[in-house]
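User: Can you help me understand a structure? I only have the sequence.
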Amino acid sequence: MAEAVFQPPRRKRRTFESYESPFPVDVDGKDFRIYQAEIINNNVVVRNPEDIEQLYSKGYFGKGILSRSRPMYSVSDPLLITKWQGTNINLPIIASKKYQYHVQWAKSILQEQGFDDCSISKILENYTKPLELKNDGAEQTGDCCNRMDPSTENVELSRNSSTDTGNAVPPSHECRNQKEGYKKASLEGDPACDPLAVCGSKAQEPPDLKEIAEVSCQKHSFLVRCGCKAKESTEQRCCETVASKECAPEYVLVQEEEESSLCPEDNSAGEQGNFIKKEKLVCRRNPFRIFEYLQLSLEEAFFLVYALGCLTIYYGEEPLTILKLWEVFSEVKPNFKTTYMAYHYFRSKGWVPKVGLKYGTDLLLYRKGPPFYHASYSVIAELVDDNFEGSLRRPLSWKSLSGLNRTTVNASKELMLCYLIRPSNMTEKEMSTPECMKRIKVQELIVTRWVSSRERSEQDEI
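Assistant: Let's start by predicting it. Here is the structure, written out as tokens:
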């Protein structure tokens, strides 16, 4: 067997951020904090914006559900922000067509709640009416809370749904009951709008998760799945902060067109004047908000809990222990133990492992992080015994190995086989806890394609 030649990682040409500490743990321990996550539909999700920023910036854990990697989704249109950059208004700017999509989505939510077309049109018309922008001298302020018409306060749509979300509001055939509809309507942050606010069906949950009590935090008569523990004041304040941000209405600036008339030209015979279209920004409330969350892989979540001790994962109000997470994740993902051992090993060596699904492997290894370098290795993890035998998860034939190697090489990476060697006398009971990793050995094997003609030419040169 030839000795592996390690190639230096390829640095990206454009880097727009600075490198921070690799883990979200301060060496001195002064700024150490416990982050919070929750299990929703067999996925680990972080909802607190501060936790999202810290976990991704210091270690590049997780991925934004609405972004390619870094959770930085914004409803604003970058082209419109550049176009109106002289307005000095710190509000999202979107096009009128995009705003109509949000109105249509809100309309579909109200239809599912049982409102008739007359009530829906009145609700949306009152909720999305233009709000006055105050001018302070030559500059425009971005404080929309002071621009609201007092008459619109009583019809503001927020998380005012009842605790029993299954009770739909009966449709009213007359517009005289619209005021009651305003109070019962739920658009922003509603479970129907926010898929992460609703747990999956029982059929999708692992058996162990069914035994855990599912309790939702109820504050101010709306339903919030914040996954916090009400006994501890710090976690309760964190829950209230996330809930208040999700319940508050979102104000956006909508670019709309208006027609303005000019005086008719002297040589024109017609009496009708010339009309030109002018673009303007109108402040409105967004009837359908979209929230950006951080989704952690099971390996990343368990590493933060077990190795770093800086994350607490909740299911409902109940925090899950390390042993419970090891058991639950192993049932959700049958090969979790194997992939996590490989993840833990490479993370401890200073690499930043990410999911390698798009290249047909288990992990991708980055130096420092995805913003700085391209992935150097595509890793396939296998659990074997002392004799390198065992039930392989994905037995590779020469044909499949050649295709996988070709795919990896075309992406300027190297294929690595990571063998996790367990002692032959290790029992399944020992494997039921993460302490089994103390007896696991790791063997790395880099797969390269041997080109006979290239080797002959090198020997001739020598």
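Now, to help you interpret it: Residues 206 and 332 are 6 Å apart (CA to CA). Residues 136-184, 188-234 have pLDDT under 50 and may be disordered. Let me know which part you'd like to focus on.
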